[in-house]
Each structure stands twice: as C-alpha cells, then as structure tokens.
Design brief:
The structure is a single chain. This protein is α/β, with parallel strands linked by helices. The chain has one domain. 41% of the residues lie in helices and 16% in strands. It is built from 4 helices and 5 strands, in the order βαβαβαβαβ. It has a 5-stranded parallel β-sheet, with helices on both faces. The protein is globular and about 35 Å long. The protein starts with a strand and ends with a strand.
C-alpha cells in the first residue's frame, strides 16, 4: 500500500498538481474543507483519514514534535521549510516517499525535506 498524502494550506498548489500528474494519491486541506481547522484538529483529521501530512508551517511541525514527546498518536508529518528547497525537490521527495514507504512506517514520525 502506498502512502497517501495530505497537503496543509501553506503548500503551493504546484506541488499538489505535479504530484497528481505523477500518480500520487494526494488531497489538500482546502479540498477537504479543513483549511480553517486549528493544527491539532487537522493533525487528528489526517490521522482519521490515514494520510501523512506535508506542511511548510513551522508551528505545525513543532506541535507534531510535541505530540511525539507526549506519545500522542498521529499518522506522520513531513516538513519542508518554505526557503529550504524548490518545488521540484519537494515533488521528487514526496513522490519517492509515497512510492517506497508504507503508512505504518510514518506513525508518530516527523521528517524533514528535502531528503539528503
């Protein structure tokens, strides 16, 4: 089973569009009518959907790291700083993640992009 991705509201639409062109299963918070949810509720929503969220919001990343410390379950968060990589790098890395990893590998995990 491939990893299904969920895009936070801060992620450029171009990343989502290119991932879809490459066959990656991805939905955005806007499409899910969840773009106004607070970060904690959004992380719980993503867990219920069984997806891994990609965000460029540093506060969201910090909250997920706090959930890790507390042992609070979530389905994984991937963080890419807005100035830390290009759209192309993020697309390539997210496509790779979706194709070669399993959802179980992402449980309670925070990963940083671009991959090294």
């Amino acid at each position: 089973m491939t990893v299904q991705l969920y895009m936070d509201v801060h992620v450029p639409q171009a990343i989502t569009d290119q991932l879809r062109r490459r066959g990656v299963d991805v939905i955005t918070a806007i499409e899910d009518n969840a773009d106004e949810l607070p970060d904690d509720e959004l992380l719980e929503r993503v867990r219920l959907l069984g997806k891994v969220i990609f965000t460029q919001d540093i506060r969201f990343k910090a909250m997920a790291e706090e959930w890790q410390r507390q042992g609070k379950p979530f389905t994984g968060l991937i963080f890419g700083h807005q100035l830390g990589g290009t759209i192309g790098q993020y697309v390539k890395d997210l496509e790779l993640i979706s194709q070669v990893s399993e959802p179980d590998e992402w449980l309670n995990t925070v990963e940083y992009l671009p991959l090294q």
